[in-house]
Amino acid sequence: MRTVLQIDMNEKLEEIANTRPEDKSKWGPMAWKALHTVCEAIPCKSCSDHCHRMVDFEHDLVNAHLGKPIYNMENVQRYLATITEELVPVVFKK
Fold first, then answer.
1. Do residues 60 and 75 touch, judged by C-beta distance below 8 A?
2. Rounded to whole angstroms, how far apart are CA atoms 15 and 35?
3. Do the Cβ atoms of 27 and 19 come closer than 8 Å?
4. CB atoms within 10 A of CB 56
5. In the chain, what's the furthest Cα-to-Cα distance?
6. Torsion, Cα of 41, 4, 30, 53 (10° steps)
7. 24-30-31 Cα angle (round to 5)
């Protein structure tokens, strides 16, 4: 039995697959929605929240690269601080 989330994700992926490559204005919004749908599928609330923050951070990086407004500079700063404080010490075993 498929869940509503699986059906929703399949519909989003099908919509993306049926979008012409030259129609770039539709690709971005559909891709970001699909990524957030994946985040919603994560059963651990903490992990799901982290996934959403990561997608938001990446979205803001893409917006900055394209010269579009950054929607949540606080999120960008918080995410970079988290990486610096939590991830770097684990990766480099400080």
1. yes
2. 14
3. yes
4. 19
5. 48
6. -20
7. 90
Are 19 and 30 a contacting pair, CB within 8 Å? yes
For residue 63, give both structure tokens: 């917006």
2-21 pLDDT, tens digit per residue, is: 555 555 667 766 766 666 66
Q: Where are the domains of the chain?
A: 1-41, 43-94
Burial class, 59, CB count within 10 angstroms (exposed 0-12 / middle 13-18 / buried 19+): buried
Cα 10 to Cα 42: distance, rounded to the nearest angstrom: 16
pTM over 0.70: no
Summarised one tens digit per residue, pLDDT across range 27-64 is: 788 888 888 889 988 899 988 888 888 898 888 888 88
Copy the structure tokens of residue 55.
Answer: 């997608």
